[in-house]
Amino acid sequence: MKFRTEVDINESEKKIGVEDCIFSIGSCFATEMHEKFSEGQIQSLNNPFGTIFNPYSVFQAIQQVYDAKEYQESDLILANDNYISLDHHSSFDSRYAHKSLEKINQNIEESNQFLQNTSFVIMTFGTSYIYEFLPKNRLVANCHKIPQKFFEKRLLSHQELTSSINKTIEILKDICKDDVQILFTVSPVRHTKDGIVENQLSKSKLITAIHEVISGKENCQYLPVYEILMDDLRDYRFYKDDLIHPNSQAVQYIWEKFGNAYFSDETKVFINENNKIVTALTHKTADDKNPKYQEFLDKINLRIKEQQKKVKHKIF
Known about the structure:
Oligomer: single chain
GO molecular function, one term: hydrolase activity, acting on ester bonds
Strand content: 5-15%
Distance between the termini: 45 Å
Number of strands: 10
């Protein structure tokens, strides 16, 4: 008897190697994947504009990185005693304009350089909803807790969704490596504040738009992350206490399925050993002068040196 509907990720012909660069962008699930790559000591860069949720805002962010646009103070607004960019997550907010701009522009420069060496892009869309900032009559990526009266919320049209996704693909194919693989996912996190029915409509529009755009494109794939959590892991024990976000067990399950489909054998061994080293490094002792503890550290350092020989980029 079967008691669950297992959802698989199709095996990729092109595998992720130990020296490949992985760029991720979008909602918080993109960040979860980035953290897993970083723990495994694979070169990874995530969300240069902070967490963003809809395809239009992702396209705008990628465009700014491609153009290597340098933000000026005129691109910021002053709200809630902070200088903010409506294109960025609130983590870029600062009481001082120059600090906000320094972080924004540094991220853009770093991302532009990183994308030129990127082999895989993971793009996670969370919603089809977007907000228009009425005082400037422009669509924004984040509302920064500015009063709701200054915004108008609406669903992106199918044309806006497909156009944003298409333009994003075109930019990435131009700036990244020639054989870059672009992997699309829809976040399994339900936006319950939009409403349950509204969230389902929003996710459905995303899935429809992605499949329409990538149909026939060899370098673009859809990863059924949303379907894995909704169908394969259809139980609240796989969620955090808020019953919305997947817990560490669910993320690990999806990560392993992804790895089985996309990692080379060498990468699997490399990441597995690095994960063991990370776990060992968390070990603490009350007496760090203890000879046995020093011997333990020496063994860990030897393992790190052996791992370092396998790659050119710096690890740990």
